[in-house]
Amino acid sequence: MTQKEPDEKELIEILEMVKAFEQKAREMCEISTTNTKKWRLRAEAKRAAAAQKLEV
């Protein structure tokens, strides 16, 4: 059983789907990076506050 080669229209549709997927992946990566930075800053602030309490 052999598969037929996709025609130009099908290839364009596949390319458009892949481009949309790439865009969504980039957006998710940016959101993840933003959230990671927020939580890292919060954790650093809490550690600094705890360290300051120990010094007093």
Describe the structure concisely.
The protein has about 55 residues and is an all-alpha fold. The chain has one helix and no strands.
Summary tags:
mainly alpha, rod-shaped, 56 residues, 86% helix, 0% strand
Written overview of the protein:
This protein is mainly α. It is 86% helix and 0% strand. It has one helix and no strands. The longest helix is centred in the middle third of the chain and has 48 residues.
- Name the structural class: mainly alpha
Largest sheet: none
What is the tally of beta strands?
A: 0
Order of helices and strands: H
Helix and strand arrangement:
Blueprint: H1 8-55
